[in-house]
Structure formats: structure tokens, C-alpha cells
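The data layer described in this paper is built around a simple, fixed record for each protein. Such a record has a labelled line for the sequence and another for the C-alpha cells. For reference, a complete record is included directly beneath this paragraph.
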Amino acid sequence: MTEFDFESLIADIPDYPKPGVLFKDITPLLADPEGFEAVVQALADPYRSLGVTKVMGAEARGFMLGAPVALELGCGFVPARKPGKLPREVVEQDYDLEYGTATLQIHTDAFGPDDKVLIVDDLVATGGTMVAQVKLVEQLGAELAGIGCLMELEFFHPRDILAPVTDKQLHSLVKVK
């Protein structure tokens, strides 16, 4: 796959959702067929030879990239959802937000000890959602194959937050300083 300028299709929206925030809108990238394909390929490429059996993505934007990456790798997709959204027995993991906590859940049979799981998301900032997903993989006894995302907000130091819970390196396509 040739290099793709992902940033050229990510729109900066100043003062959204509140004054002082520069929102990175990935919808133009997802709407561009070549850009969307390039993202999916670039997120899948480092993991093609690792025997990934499942890709997990967190609600909701993790679904947009995780599901097509799973198809690209020829494996299943597991949604990590907010409480009350899954119909069968679940395991859950709380994580910290800027002001409070949130919870992610997956079905108890989502992974087993023979699974190698790749976590995929659109963005990693403070790392809470990623940490919760790593812990969900561990709770069900699966192996973490890696963590990939389209965009990493480096100024939040997400790698430092992930380091205590996994030795897997974060693979990000765009780094925002």
C-alpha cells in the first residue's frame, strides 16, 4: 500500500463541541472511498501475520473502523458497548473520564483463550477506553495482538497510560502533537 495523506481528509473544526477545542472530524476521510480503504488497509497491515481472530471496537466510532478492519483480516468483530445495549450475559469494565467514569461491556462468550484480539478505534486521547478494552480481553482469557487507531492525540500521552496495562505498542496513523 502506498503512503496516503490521511490528514488532508480530516477537517479541523474550531470551538467544537465547546470553545477552545479543535475537533478533528474524520467524516470526510470516511466518505472518501480511497481514503477509507487506505485507513482500513493501514490499520490491518501490521497485524496480518499475527493470527488475529477477533477485532474489538468501542461504541460508537470504533465500530466504523473496527468492523472493516476485521473483514480485511478475515476475522470476527466484537463490539464493546455502553451498558444495557447487549442482550446476553456480559462482562464489564469501568474507566475514567475527565469528569467521572464510564463502562464498556462485551458478551461473556466474545473471546476465549484461543483468540488473538486486535483493538481498533478512531482516536486515542486519554487512553481510558483503550485501557478498558485491554482489561476486557484479559478478563476473558484471550491474547491481545495489538492496538491500532487512526489518530493519536500525543499531548494527552496515551502511550504512558497504556504502558502499565500492556506491553503491546500503539499503532496510530496520524499523530496530533
Remarks:
- Residues 49-176 form a domain with the Rossmann fold fold (CATH 3.40.50.2020).
- The radius of gyration is 16 Å.
- The mean pLDDT is 95.
- Strands lie at 11-14, 22-25, 54-58, 76-80, 90-97, 100-107, 116-124, 143-153, 170-176.
